[in-house]
Amino acid sequence: MALIVQKYGGTSVANPERIRNVARRVARYKALGHQVVVVVSAMSGETNRLISLAKEIMQDPDPRELDVMVSTGEQVTIGMTALALMELGIKAKSYTGTQVKILTDDAFTKARILDIDEHNLKKDLDDGYVCVVAGFQGVDANGNITTLGRGGSDTTGVALAAALKADECQIYTDVDGVYTTDPRVVPEARRLDKITFEEMLELASQGSKVLQIRSVEFAGKYKVKLRVLSSFEEEGDGTLITFEENEENMEEPIISGIAFNRDEAKITVTGVPDKPGIAYQILGPVADANIDVDMIIQNVGADGTTDFTFTVHKNEMNKALSILRDKVQGHIQAREISGDDKIAKVSVVGVGMRSHVGIASQMFRTLAEEGINIQMISTSEIKIAVVIEEKYMELAVRVLHKAFGLENA
Amino acid sequence: MALIVQKYGGTSVANPERIRNVARRVARYKALGHQVVVVVSAMSGETNRLISLAKEIMQDPDPRELDVMVSTGEQVTIGMTALALMELGIKAKSYTGTQVKILTDDAFTKARILDIDEHNLKKDLDDGYVCVVAGFQGVDANGNITTLGRGGSDTTGVALAAALKADECQIYTDVDGVYTTDPRVVPEARRLDKITFEEMLELASQGSKVLQIRSVEFAGKYKVKLRVLSSFEEEGDGTLITFEENEENMEEPIISGIAFNRDEAKITVTGVPDKPGIAYQILGPVADANIDVDMIIQNVGADGTTDFTFTVHKNEMNKALSILRDKVQGHIQAREISGDDKIAKVSVVGVGMRSHVGIASQMFRTLAEEGINIQMISTSEIKIAVVIEEKYMELAVRVLHKAFGLENA
């Protein structure tokens, strides 16, 4: 007997028929003697419908009230899923974030989980219930309803798996696993049976849409065994995300996948005096406004000044620009502050990279051969990311996928 | 400065534009220096949509899960209403039943309020907030979400007014007050400026749809000043529901109104041995199944047996019949158990009735003159109710309205 957390996304619970499918899958796991916790998202389209309703009233809705409204999406799905299980004769009980309770901070619309009280769930599991938990939502210390931000249902699933010490957290989605890259861009893309957490983390953070990055971080931190599966296929083991690279397989490919992301914009601050503390003076006000920053690059110029470049989500570029112009530019005497949202980020990811030189040069040569100019470069032990002009993104992904031989298993 | 609770029903918050209207009305009260608590229902149609979703999964949905789903209707409206107030520059904060907390028993889908914690609301009111509370819902001692049953938002409003010791509880609806009877049946029906609690109670319980009976009981019990108003008219004082009959006005009419109700069905148990405890043996199992019973009549027959008749909601007639046939008939040796859902109840109501004889005989004569047969009679100090064949209902209401001179102020 194992304890399994299964998370189903919005397309997997898009209508009553699909919810019945979810219930049948859960029933098969119950029949094998497993304990099952089900985490569900809102029915697809529902979150957007609720956000639109809020925006009909207030263009930039108050985040506390927005969370009150948006959290109802998952609340409807947990009720329906519990009913579908009961209809199959399975004992089931739904839980909102408040009822669990999934304690978060009070950063409405992008809250972070602080603690999960697993006692009620444990008791119900031991009494034979399937617990159906609303993803994406929690409650702060004052009883306010919070949401974790888009994709937060994955995080809920992994955090519950960690709190319950579950044997496996299964993320059901509309794809059947993690691919070497997006098959819509590269038809030859191949499903990976296994991937390490570090690789997955880089792939997720670099824009692979299969799993949300915070859920992968959580899984890594708490050593939760994570598996990505399709909710539309009866069979298939999906992709297992492992803690360790496979030591047995010496022929493991160097590169696991190519990730890409066109959601970011680049902000450049030029002519900044090259003094200690300058990075903080620039990024502090941006962080205070709750704007997430991804890549950060600083180059020393010849004249004792430096150029400082970073990327943010496209939606937040204008907000970041006006913060910098209003609060930072005069203060630090920067020459110019500019933004560019016609960029894309492309990354090659693989644990094999650690022990292989030449990956970077092969990547840069491949792009150069296609005449693609590189605007920014950022590297980690298992990743090389470049920022290029957005219009070259698909081309870059295709030629890199081929250059690193990813189409061959 | 007064503390006012305003309750807005589903048609008053049916869409963003109407919610903005609600906010503007609240703003006018705030501008006069009043503290305001707003109680809102789900947008009209929303509760039925959610019930349909549940029934798509399970024909007779588990009541706990149904409440989880249905309660989201009001949760969306509180968010929207709070946003609409903020958009007008008014500090506002929404509350679910759990957040208030409105403690109920655990009779899902028809829970009763046990206690209201008014501390958070009081603090926010004192801090200048308008508190927007979800009607119709509460939370049981174990943290389960409950709903109060249809029309329960009125009860929420009155219960909050009682807990907060509000100066007035205003119930906004799509009619501009309480009428002598339904104007759709009798065009000459007249709006009452005032009505006593007892009369209102009888009118509500007898089927007048303006206010839900439990809210009137609550208001009477806690001496909450209740006013029914239209949310679609800027002006008008609606109908005030008073604690005392108006002693000053000697010419007060004897009858205040005619109520009617076609939602009930009649169940008759014939040939029951006339022994002590028989009423309990019949009604006990019905009550245990949470079926509400309205009128109850017992007649002694000539042969030492008795006939026992009572009414229940039409939707519950078949359930009640099968309970009686399965669990009661053999046990008490009843000759026959039969149901009739083609009935209507018509009542004349008025505190003036106490001191006037002849109301009953006038009522019966009026119906007899139209050839309408009376199947059951039930009386209270201020009400006479009769059950007649359903098809005669409108006719009965019209002739009684005329016979008691209700068209003249």
TrEMBL record, chains A, B:
Cite the annotated pathway.
Amino-acid biosynthesis; L-lysine biosynthesis via DAP pathway; (S)-tetrahydrodipicolinate from L-aspartate: step 1/4; Amino-acid biosynthesis; L-methionine biosynthesis via de novo pathway; L-homoserine from L-aspartate: step 1/3; Amino-acid biosynthesis; L-threonine biosynthesis; L-threonine from L-aspartate: step 1/5
Enzyme Commission code: 2.7.2.4
> Origin, by domain of life?
Bacteria
| InterPro entries attached to this UniProt entry | AceGlu_kinase-like_sf, ACT-like_dom_sf, ACT_Aspartokinase, ACT_dom, AKii-LysC-BS, Asp/Glu/Uridylate_kinase, Asp_kin_monofn, Asp_kinase
Q: Does the keyword ATP-binding apply?
A: yes
> Gene3D superfamilies under this entry?
Acetylglutamate kinase-like, VC0802-like
Query: Which GO terms label this protein's molecular function in UniProt?
Result: aspartate kinase activity; ATP binding
Mention any Pfam family matching this sequence.
Answer: ACT
Keyword Amino-acid biosynthesis (UniProt): yes
Signal peptide limits:
none
What this protein catalyses is: L-aspartate + ATP = 4-phospho-L-aspartate + ADP
Q: Which GO terms describe its biological process?
A: homoserine biosynthetic process; lysine biosynthetic process via diaminopimelate; threonine biosynthetic process
Q: Which PROSITE patterns match?
A: ACT (PS51671), ASPARTOKINASE (PS00324)
Residue ranges of the ACT domain? 267-342, 348-409
Keywords, in A-Z order: Amino-acid biosynthesis, ATP-binding, Kinase, Lysine biosynthesis, Nucleotide-binding, Transferase
Which residues are substrate-binding? T47, E74
Which GO terms of the cellular component aspect does the record hold? cytosol
Binding-site residues, ATP: K7, Y8, G9, G10, T173, D174, Y179, R184, K209, V210
Instruction: Give the protein family.
Output: Belongs to the aspartokinase family.
What's the protein name?
Aspartokinase
Q: Which organism is it from?
A: Methylophilus methylotrophus
